[in-house]
Amino acid sequence: MTLAPLLQVDAVGKSFGALQALDDISFDLKAGETLGLIGPNGAGKTTLFNILSGFLAPDRGQVRFMAQDIGSWDPMRRAQSGVVRTFQKSLVFPDMSVCRNLALALLALQGDGYRWWGGRRALANAEAKARQLLAASPLADDCQTRVGDMSYGAQRMVDILIALAQQPRLLLLDEPTAGLTVAEAAQLLGLVRQLHADAAVVLIAHDMDVVFRECDRIAVLNLGRLVAVDTPERIRSHEAVRQAYLGALARQEV
Ligand SMILES: Nc1ncnc2c1ncn2[C@@H]1O[C@H](COP(=O)(O)OP(=O)(O)OP(=O)(O)O)[C@@H](O)[C@H]1O
Fold first, then answer.
1. Which of 234, 244, 219 is nearest to 35 (CA)?
2. Same-domain status, 232 and 122
3. ipTM tops the 0.95 cut
4. pLDDT at residue 58, rounded to an integer
5. Taking Cα atoms as reference points, which of 215, 212, 209 lies closest to residue 173?
6. Is ligand 1 within 6 A of the CB of residue 152?
7. What is residue 146's DSSP assignment?
8. What is the pTM of this model?
9. Any idea where the ABC transporter domain is (predicted)?
10. Which of 167, 189, 214 is the last residue of a domain?
């Protein structure tokens, strides 16, 4: 029996006024798969993330998650169902500890708004869950560390742990590895696989080394169109991709 894909994007389009930011985008994603999403500035990567996470509605097409049309679901409902997104700009509270940051993410997901500030027990429960998650990570000894005192790479790892605390089935990572070395990026993405092996991941990254090493397949966007979706090997030799990415792919020794 063939399982239905976790995510099905079907003929999605989005315009801003006269600008067609996305045109006829279709692809599938299976549980456990990592898809790299690459393309030059303005290609439409963030617009696609906004549509998948419910911050923008497409003008055309359909997004199905676990075989359901999620077009009418708001970002909170999607997050509670396992569609979890990170942003280019970190959302951590630098003055709080790692543990408290994770706990607040867990509480926010429960949709209790600010009432949880009064709920000491809810916070204690969330912090206990956060400690469990941390124990299995390279930041096991940093539960009480103030995030603002950590290295840049460690802070990016806190971003990922916050996303993982939300039990993602589909994890949308927007440039999580920017500013990291290839080794740090591999460690960060390894953590996703270690803690959530069956989550599907869509990764936006500008670093071609990271994308070609870490992704099972790569989707190439250019001017709002999907140029190709294929394995890294095939993407390297794809003629239209080579045209769009001549310089970057040349550095990959294709
Ligand atoms: N809210 C908006 N209003 C008008 N135009 C927009 C809006 N959001 C995005 N665009 C335009 O849509 C196109 C795609 O933008 P998008 O941010 O999705 O590209 P991107 O591939 O994520 O680029 P980058 O790598 O620079 O982040 C761009 O031309 C951008 O200027």
1. 219
2. no
3. yes
4. 97
5. 215
6. no
7. B
8. 0.89
9. 7-248
10. 167
Q: Which residue stretches of the chain are H helix?
A: 45-53, 75-80, 98-109, 120-135, 152-165, 182-195, 208-214, 232-236, 239-244, 246-250
Mean pLDDT of 10-16: 98
DSSP assignment of 43-92: SSHHHHHHHHHTSS--SEEEEEETTEE-TT--HHHHHHTTEEE--SS---
Question: Does 131 share its domain with 100?
Answer: yes
Range of the domain at 211: 1-75+168-254
Is 142 a domain residue? yes
Q: Are residues 161 and 172 in the same domain?
A: no
With a 6 Å cutoff on the Cβ, whether 151 touches ligand 1 is no
Mean pLDDT is lowest, of 73-87, 113-127, 146-160, for: 113-127
- Lookup: tokens for 119: 């709920």
